[in-house]
Amino acid sequence: MAHESAEDLFHFNVGGWHFSVPRSKLSQFPDSLLWKEASALTSSESQRLFIDRDGSTFRHVHYYLYTSKLSFSSCAELNLLYEQALGLQLMPLLQTLDNLKEGKHHLRVRPADLPVAERASLNYWRTWKCISKP
């Protein structure tokens, strides 16, 4: 993210958690509420938006915006992620989660799929199929 200038970033305060997303990443989701709200800001306005959602769950949305991959460590978080994606109108993420729900994808939690801040020792993580559905 060092190559992105400050004016190319949108800053979100989500339930007290602070996230920054480059314009180029957010613009890939033109139908999302995130893009609609961020792109409506004028250059004179602060590019920081407050979103009244759970910041802990939003970190998975943030990871998805950057990588187009899912990242979570429990089935309960999957349900919360589905609710947030629905509320934010992130249709590609909803489609991915629906595919997971329909059994088109098997959920496997691996340390390499999780952000560095969320990783634990390799012995901590177990790999299993998530049987709870959003």
From TrEMBL:
GO MF annotation list: identical protein binding
Biological source species: Homo sapiens (Human)
Gene transcribed to yield this protein: KCTD19
Pfam families registered for this protein in UniProt: BTB_2
InterPro entries with a match to the protein in the record: SKP1/BTB/POZ_sf, T1-type_BTB
Origin superkingdom: Eukaryota
Gene3D superfamilies: Potassium Channel Kv1.1, Chain A (3.30.710.10)
Name of the protein this chain belongs to: Potassium channel tetramerization domain containing 19
Matches recorded under CDD domains: BTB1_POZ_KCTD19 (cd18373)
Residue intervals of the Potassium channel tetramerisation-type BTB domain: 12-79
A GO biological process held by the record: protein homooligomerization
